[in-house]
């Protein structure tokens, strides 16, 4: 069995689970690692504690392989937003951000500006809410120092071309929220100067598994203002503050959660072994299957057909919205409904049984629509 086949076979969540953009059920390997590490810590033995503590460096190496960046450029954080906070609170200048982004991006940028007075936020609103490279080009001005963007739009699944965006913005800093991308999108992650993510969605690593990558250019222009004692050189109790540590270690606040690091290390390693390009292709195939089902039963799809991840946003007609939500629940399909849009997320291991349940739910909506349609009146000739 190949590494990809083994990865695909590892999905054992309940049939009908299509809510990966919200939370990824733990992989069996992650669950096994978590249990083993907990037992080591429970023993109180120095050797066991040291083995669990080593997961910090293991996670950084695995993420470096996954993102194709040096491990020393990666800092483990409790969440994606912690990474964004380090980047934006330490940045001086003007940052461009779409008002349609996930709130963590514009809110963190504004909080950083208000707190230090060194960051100015330039909002703009793409006409369709999707931040395409050409849309960014039109919004750029000479005074913009950084661009803040989600690699995958949390609402629609639209996936931006990082390489094209890098070319458009030039030497400005590119700060990327990749929480909906890492593990299922084959992208040029190294094109981002700051890349923030988390393992609790598509990586199947559970909560507390955030991380952020700082490129050399980012470390030159971003101060580690939110870092704690763990981000400083020197020994504790020396009586004076040392300089910031080298690399991404400068952005450490305190000691690493080694249990979370262990889960993240094995999850990232699984993806590296399976091959991110192969996994991304499987995810895209499942998403196309979801789109085909929606087309068959005449449920409009908001997600772009040529630039998507595993997220498919269904935008039913108002008359279908209630019946669709009920049908999904009745058929055991787990998805996210928000603002009239149903967000469906399929992973590489999403099986035919789950897609069948989704198809049955959509068929029920279509059947109801047909039954309730007004009868056609045919005028008789006199």
Give keywords.
382 residues; alpha/beta; seven-stranded mixed sheet; three-stranded antiparallel sheet; 13 helices; 13% strand
Describe this structure in words.
The protein is an alpha/beta fold and 382 residues long. It is built from 13 helices and 10 strands. It has helices at residues 3-9, 28-43, 46-53, 55-67, 80-89, 104-116, 133-139, 162-169, 216-221, 258-274, 276-296, 318-330, 352-372, and strands spanning 74-77, 93-98, 119-124, 146-150, 173-177, 194-198, 210-214, 311-314, 336-338, 341-345. Strands 1-7-6-5-4-2-3 form a 7-stranded mixed sheet, with helices on both faces. Strands 8-10-9 form a 3-stranded antiparallel sheet, with helices on one face. Helix 6 (104-116) links the parallel strand 2 and strand 3 (119-124). Helix 2 runs antiparallel to helix 3 and helix 12 packs across helix 13. It is globular, with a radius of gyration of 23 Å. The mean pLDDT is 94.
What is shown here, in short?
This protein is an alpha/beta fold and 382 residues long.
Give the strand tally: 10
Query: What's the gyration radius in Å?
Result: 23 Å
Mean pLDDT: 94
Note the overall shape.
globular
SS-derived structural category: alpha/beta
Distance between the termini: 74 Å
Helix and strand sequence: HHHHEHEHEHEHEEEHHHEHEEH
Strand order of the largest sheet: 1-7-6-5-4-2-3
Beta-strand residue fraction: 5-15%
Helix count, per DSSP?
13
Oligomer: single chain
Low-confidence stretches: none
Helix content bin: 40-55%
Largest sheet: 7 strands, mixed
